[in-house]
Amino acid sequence: MKRRNNILGLCLLLSLVFSSGVFGKPPARNPLDWLNELEKDVLGTVTEGNLFDRLTQFEMVLTGRSADDSLVDRLFYLENLLYSNQPHDICLLYKLQALEWVLYREMTPGALLSRLEKIELFLYGQTFSGPITKRLERLITQLFPNGDIEANWVSIPEGLLVKAKMADELSSVTSKADDEFKFIIAETLAVDGNILFPKGSVGVGVVQSVKKPGNLGRDARLSFGRFKIRAIDGSFVNISFRSEAYELNRSYQWAVAASALGMAAFGPEGILLGLAVKGKEWTMPVGTEFYLQITEPIRIYTLRDNRR
């Protein structure tokens, strides 16, 4: 009976989350999907067990303590801790990426925890135990003077160009609509010495549609939907193909890679790719470079690079 009441209570909570939001907040995502995403970002995998036990364990990994708040408030707190910068309170991803920039001058791939362990191994030859928050604070105080990261809030205009490269292969044979793929920032993007997107930062794109080769020699085509990447401060930035990126992709990337990849061309809206081998299937290999543009103005908490 107690188990049944617990299940009914959970169902009621989830229905409130989806229907009207909690405590004045906008409607939240599915809590299970939400936790899955956070675990993947931090641990690199989804753990086993029921939702509440997993959330408690995840809190212990991040902060060393478990909160007594509602399910949704706990998830909001953890997401903000990871990705949202407030006055005098910078997020965990920003701290990690500031450390990586100082040590490597680029970002490293992988989940947050594995990246932290790589830094500890690089500096001390061993990894440490304890919550991620304390481990990052220890590194920040040791690598930055007085534990202060020199940073600025910078307003970024729409249309700024970003050079990227493919981290996953795309193919008109195997790719499907709504497939996600990863891309990497190929060159660090900075404005007046303020780092916005360090080299090695990983973003995600989505395949919008796939067209097979036609009988009359029509090339295979892939249509790309949205692209999204986190800036150095952890904030999500939407980027896409725009007119300047379109021209650069045509004149630079595809001309350079034509001998190896075939001559691909973006459509006038910047979303279509094709292969200039008539009537053939098409592949975009790992490492293929291309340009994108920021599609909206955004304010980013940048990292000041004094070595430029």
Care to describe what's here?
There is one protein chain. With 308 residues, the protein is an alpha+beta fold. The chain folds into 3 domains: 2-80, no CATH class; 92-149, no CATH class; 154-304, Lipocalin, CATH 2.40.128. It is built from 8 helices and 13 strands. Strands 2-4-7-8-9-12 form a 6-stranded antiparallel barrel. Strands 1-13-6-5 form a 4-stranded antiparallel beta sheet, with no helix packed on it. Strands 3-11 form a two-stranded antiparallel sheet. Helix 2 (31-43) runs parallel beside helix 4, helix 3 packs parallel to helix 4 and helix 5 crosses helix 6 (112-124). It is globular, with a radius of gyration of 22 Å. The N and C termini lie far apart (66 Å). Residues 2-24 and 253-279 have low confidence and may be disordered.
At a glance:
The protein has 308 residues and is α+β, with helices and mostly antiparallel strands. 37% of the residues lie in helices and 23% in strands. The protein has three domains: 2-80, no CATH class; 92-149, no CATH class; 154-304, Lipocalin (Beta Barrel), CATH 2.40.128.260.
